[in-house]
Each structure stands twice: as structure tokens, then as C-alpha cells.
Amino acid sequence: MSISSPTSKMIAEKTGAIGWMIFNNPERLNAVGLEMWQAVPQILADFESDPEIRVIVLKGAGGKAFVAGADISQFGESRSTAEGILAYETATEVAFNAIADTAKPTIAMIDGYCIGGGLGIALSCDMRIAAEGSTFGIPAAKLGLAYGAGGTGRLVHVVGPSFAKEIFYTARRFTHEEALAMGLVNRVTTKDALENFVRDYCALIAENAPLTVGTAKQVVDEFTKAPGNFDAAKCDALIARCFASDDYKEGRAAFMEKRKPVFKGR
Question: Which GO terms describe its biological process (predicted)?
Fold first, then answer.
């Protein structure tokens, strides 16, 4: 059963105990625009309020990508000024937090590209199940922008600091085998078996006691909170410095002009 969505680029469906949130921008490999980020909390709120929904699955439309990142074509419009950056970053952070803070179990069903903000979405989920041939990466260092502190923390908690640094430093794409070895994904299946595998996992979860599952989720999440001496203001200042830099302008321009960027470190 389909439910209403604020934008046609996000599809929300309910089938039995599963709530499906589908990123529906296949012509851009499901790159997420501002209206899509803003729709995420609204869709999740509907799933949360429905007692029949026991598991929430996030997936991408089109069979080529989960989510290939944020829609960089919007960056000049929405992330080129301090005000625009703040509004855009607020929308993305609200979306990430809405996924991470959802009381019900969440699974990212990954088939294809899972890049940048797409990986951030997947990391906000409780589990990640991927098809063979899927690729993963965070290309922030090729664009001159900075990944948010929340998303960075989730990556560190999933793969550990050394792998997190490798992902950020190299900005390269990692194979599904590498992702599995790092613990970036929980399970890998064939492309043809992916949806049935995910449905079977959802069925396993749905038949268990909801209060036990919900308690486990919250207690585990408590153990992943940053220590009390975490300097949020320092992180925010470092991230803002990237967005205000000439390198960020160069990264945007090079992406749109389909050329290799030349960064100066300023």
C-alpha cells in the first residue's frame, strides 16, 4: 500500500510489517535533493505511528544505485552561501537523525552505488544488506567539502577509526568485498536474491518481541554516543572552514565541468 509523500522523488509503501522508503530519482542515480531530504522525517513519522509496521527498509529505485550522494547540481544554488549551506546542512542532518533515531529497526537495502550522502543514509540505518557489485565511498576530499560530524561519528562506530580515515583520505570507491571485510555492510547477497533476503530478515525481526527489539536498539545506541568531552564547536568550525574555502568552490566547479580539480589548501 502506497502512502502520501511530499515529493514524487520519495516513495513510501507498506507491505505487511515492512515500511519501504524509496529514493526515487533514478535518472540521477537517486541523488538526494533538498525536497527529498525534507521528506525523509515525514515518511518515517508515518511509519513510526503505525503499530503494524515492525521494520523500515530504505532502498533506491532503478536497480543501479541505492543513493549516489547528494544532488551536487543543487550545490551552486543551495550550498554556495553561508545561509544556504546552513539550511541545506540542517535538512540533511535532520534527515540523518530521523533515520538514526527511529525507534523501529531500519535496514538499508543497497543495490549499486552507495556514495557520499548515500553512505551517510545507509550508516544511519541499523543494518546494511548489499548486493554483489555494489560500491561504496565518500568523495568529500575530491570536492573540498567536509562530511558532517554526526555522519563521521556513525562511520567510525561502524568500521573503526582506521578504516574511516582510509575511506576519507583516499576518497576512492570500495567494492562490496572490501565493505564486508570492513564491517561497513552486514551481509552480501547476489543481486537477484537481495530483495527476498531482506524480506526474510524483516520477517525474522517482525516475529520477535517489539519491546525487546526496541530496547536492544536503544541500549546499543547508548554505547555509541560520543564521550562527554567531545568538542562539537571545534568540529563545526572545521566543517564551516571547508565550506567557506576556495577549494570548495573549485571542487564544485570541477564536478560540474567534468574535470579534475586543482586544490590549493585554502
Answer: fatty acid beta-oxidation
In degrees and rounded to multiples of 5, residue 208 shows phi and psi of -90, 170
* Number of separate domains in the chain: 1
Taking a C-beta distance cutoff of 8 angstroms, is the pair 126, 156 a contact? no
| Residue 67 is assigned to a structural domain of this protein | yes
pLDDT in tens, 136-147: 999 999 988 888
Q: Is 245 a member of any domain? A: no
Rounded CA Rg of the chain: 18
Is residue 213 included in any domain, yes or no? Answer: no
Whole-prediction pTM value?
Answer: 0.88
What is the CATH number for 83? Answer: 3.90.226.10
* Spatial contact of 91 and 37, defined as CB atoms under 8 Å apart: yes
134 alpha-carbon distance from chain centroid: 15
Helical pair 82-101 and 117-124, crossing angle rounded to 10 deg: 30
117 in Cβ contact with 125 (< 8 Å):
no
Q: Give residue for cell 568500521.
A: 159
What do you get for the CA distance between the two ends of the chain, in Å?
Answer: 51
Question: Which domain range does residue 57 map to?
Answer: 2-191
Task: Name every residue whose Cβ is closer than 8 Å to that of residue 174 and which is 6 or more positions away in sequence.
Answer: 135, 136, 137, 167, 182, 184
**Cell of residue 42, nine digits:** 515525514
Helix axes 232-243, 149-159, angle to 10 degrees: 110
| pLDDT for residue 77 | 56
